[in-house]
Amino acid sequence: MSLIIAGERSGVGKTTVTLALLAALRQRQQVVQSFKVGPDYIDSMFHQRVTGRACRSLDPVLTSEAYVQRCFGHIAKLQSMRWLKA
Ligand SMILES: Nc1ncnc2c1ncn2[C@@H]1O[C@H](COP(=O)(O)OP(=O)(O)O)[C@@H](O)[C@H]1O
Ligand SMILES: [Mg+2]
Questions:
Q1: Could you tell me the CATH number of the domain that includes residue 9?
Q2: I need a surface site. Which of 38, 56, 77, 82 has the fewest CB within 10 A?
Q3: CA of 16 to the centre of ligand 2 (A)
Q4: Which domain holds residue 15?
Q5: Residue 73 host element (H or E)
């Protein structure tokens, strides 16, 4: 299962909602893989703190759409559940 948390601008609560959902899943002993869209390392560190796993960066600007698709596909194959956070 994949879920995208998105918002139309910064400050609307994407990170807050994402961290709450990740924490709730982790409390239920779920394996959860988070992703972060865009060049941000701070949110990724929050994700890792909650899930215990490295958050993967998906940035089509600094890489390419093809790379993002390959990266997501590769990591997703290894996980039963993955979350995409925009
Ligand atoms: N540690 C914090 N203490 C107080 N307010 C915060 C904190 N982190 C975020 N906020 C506020 O909560 C709101 C949502 O933030 P955030 O979840 O980071 O939004 P987004 O990820 O969409 O940019 C914003 O108004 C932000 O200023
Ligand atoms: Mg955020």
A1: 3.40.50.300
A2: 77
A3: 7
A4: 2-85
A5: helix 65-78
